[in-house]
Write a structure and sequence with these properties.
By secondary structure, this protein is mainly α. Helix content is 63%, strand content 5%. It has three domains: 1-51; 53-189, no CATH class; 214-263, no CATH class. The chain contains eight helices and five strands, in the order ααααααααβββββ. This is Accessory regulator AgrB. One of its GO terms (cellular component) is membrane.
């Protein structure tokens, strides 16, 4: 049974016990799904890291990545289990890499973390917050999250530099893990990350739904779009969407030129 079905089942039971309406039941199911999904992902990643003896570095990378992601947003996979699988792979890889590539000299580590922090800072200025198509932000919310994301990178650089100086090299692997976590998350803000995840989603859908028999045009939301840009009268909540790569009947990837394709809300073509 999927997490979605489990959440709905629990919500139905609680709704009957508490005499809640259908709308309240749906809200409860949505909240339960988020909680169960997050807890499951956390347990899977940290337990896997423990058995691979990379628990501390993986935990630091995950903590930095997740904290930054709450403010800056980023690309999402279309399916929870894809998110879990790729998230597990990325976090375990960061945890292991942080143990392997250790900068022992304080000066080199300070330079490395400064470059990482500066890169994250610049990407935030350009792309944060990177929106989730399922949650469209207002202009005020975007500006607030952009400012908070930028502040996060500055505060992170300050804290990590003080930590490097006063720890005297005892926790350099944890510093590397945190730097890798913020760097990877900053990359998820970019249009290139949205394209890459679009390719992966498309390929997995293609394989799961019957190979060459599955032909679908996949459209995804790119960051930086603002409400009302459809220019259609009476449509104030819509967002432009972009045509991304699709699969032809032979199973090969066809790259289509990006262009405004329509409106997600009013479903009109321009």
């Amino acid at each position: 049974m999927s997490i979605h079905k489990i959440s709905c089942h629990i919500a139905q039971i609680l709704s009957r016990e508490l005499a809640l309406g259908e709308d309240d039941s749906e809200v409860m199911a949505y909240g339960l799904e988020i909680i169960l999904s997050s807890v499951t992902k956390l347990v899977v990643i940290l337990s896997s890291a423990y058995f691979l003896d990379i628990f501390s570095t993986t935990m630091v990378a995950l903590l930095t990545f997740s904290s930054f992601r709450l403010l800056s947003g980023g690309v999402h996979f279309s399916d929870y289990y894809r998110c879990l699988g790729f998230g597990l792979l990325i976090m375990l890889s960061l945890g292991k890499l942080a143990q392997i590539f250790i900068l022992s000299q304080t000066f080199h580590l300070l330079v490395f973390t400064f470059v990482i922090g500066l890169s994250a800072f610049l990407l935030c200025l350009k792309w944060a917050p990177a929106e989730n198509p399922n949650k469209i932000l207002t202009d005020e919310e975007k500006e607030k999250l952009r400012v908070l994301s930028v502040i996060f990178t500055v505060v992170w650089m300050g804290i990590i530099h003080v930590f490097v100086v006063y720890s005297q090299g005892r926790f350099n692997s944890l510093v590397m893990a945190s730097a890798m976590g913020i760097w990877v998350q900053s990359l998820t803000l970019t249009p290139q990350a949205y394209k890459a995840v679009g390719y992966i989603n498309m390929l997995l859908d293609f394989l799961r739904k019957g190979g060459a028999e599955y032909v679908e045009k996949m459209v995804v939301q790119l960051p930086g779009n603002s409400p009302g840009s459809c220019s259609q009268s009476g449509c104030t909540a819509c967002q432009p969407i972009y045509l991304l790569p699709t699969q032809d009947a032979e199973g090969f990837t066809k790259i289509l030129k990006e262009k405004p394709y329509g409106c997600k809300s009013c479903d009109r073509r321009r």
